[in-house]
Amino acid sequence: MAQHKHGSMDTAEQEKTFEGFVKFSAVVAVLSILVIIFMGLANS
Q1: How many angstroms separate the CA atoms of 14 and 20, rounded?
Q2: φ, ψ for residue 2 (rounded to 5)?
Q3: Partner of 9 at 20 to 30 A CA spacing, among 2, 26, 31, 42?
Q4: Which DSSP string do the residues of 4-20 spell out, in sequence order?
Q5: Between vectors from CA 13 to CA 21 and to CA 5, what angle results, nearest 5°?
Q6: 3-state secondary structure of 23
Q7: From its phi and psi, is residue 43 left (phi > 0), alpha (psi between -120 and 50) or beta?
Q8: Is the pTM of this model over 0.85?
Q9: Per-residue confidence of the chain (44 residues) as pLDDT tens digits?
Q10: Which of helix, strand or coil describes residue 40?
Q11: Which of 21, 20, 23, 42 is nearest to 34 (CA)?
């Protein structure tokens, strides 16, 4: 097994996955806030 060298791993795929997760989380948060506002306005 080859020796591990710090900083040599390609993290492009992990960075793309994390960016997608952050975008998805932001969309879910905004939609949740909009639903709560709508429920408040509709006296639900």
Answers
A1: 10
A2: -75, 150
A3: 26
A4: P-TT-S--HHHHHHHHH
A5: 125
A6: helix
A7: left
A8: no
A9: 778 888 888 899 999 999 999 999 999 999 999 999 999 999 86
A10: helix
A11: 42
Which helix H or strand E contains 28, and what residues bound it? helix 12-41
Helix or strand or coil: residue 29? helix
Residue reference for tokens 């909009």: 34
Structure tokens at 20: 């997608």
**Which amino acid, one-letter code, is at 20?**
G
Residue bearing tokens 């791993």 = 9
Tokens encoding 25: 């989380």
